[in-house]
């Protein structure tokens, strides 16, 4: 049910321009996924011994290549997450796209670090849900 005209939705303060409700949730989760990807990228670039070696994996890349992929995606995720706090439409669109890329990258790198990949996939799914479940004009949840 929609709110009467002139009513402010819960979690969103009229003209403040700051994220409310699901957008703030998605921003925090995207930044968390970004920081996890940054840490994973640094570990892979340093060729840490925590990664599993998979000799016969179809999507096999060099561990350093995976590190750079995750590091770059992580930095972009943190930047977009910051943009989401301003409820910028570009940040919402890029946030959904980047969360999808994080899901794909982590799915393809599951054999290297399974639990970390599954956690980032779950966080990214919540980001997509949080960004797609709000009205463009109000930032309120879709009813």
Structural features, described:
- It is elongated and about 45 Å long.
- Mean pLDDT is 78; it is low at 1-17.
- The chain has a domain at 21-47 and 60-132.
- The longest helix has 25 residues, at 21-45.
- It has helices at residues 21-45, 63-84, 89-108, 114-132.
- With 143 residues, the chain is mostly helical.
The outline comes out as: elongated
Report on the biggest sheet: none
Helix % is 55-70%
Strand share of the residues?
under 5%
Q: Ranges with pLDDT <50 over ≥5 residues?
A: 1-17
What is the first-to-last residue Cα distance?
A: 6 Å
**In sequence order, what are the helices and strands, one letter per element?**
HHHH
Name the descriptors.
143 residues; mainly alpha; disordered N terminus
TL;DR of this structure?
This protein has 143 residues and is mostly helical. The protein has four helices and no strands. It has helices spanning 21-45, 63-84, 89-108, 114-132.
Secondary-structure map with pairings?
Blueprint: H1 21-45, H2 63-84, H3 89-108, H4 114-132
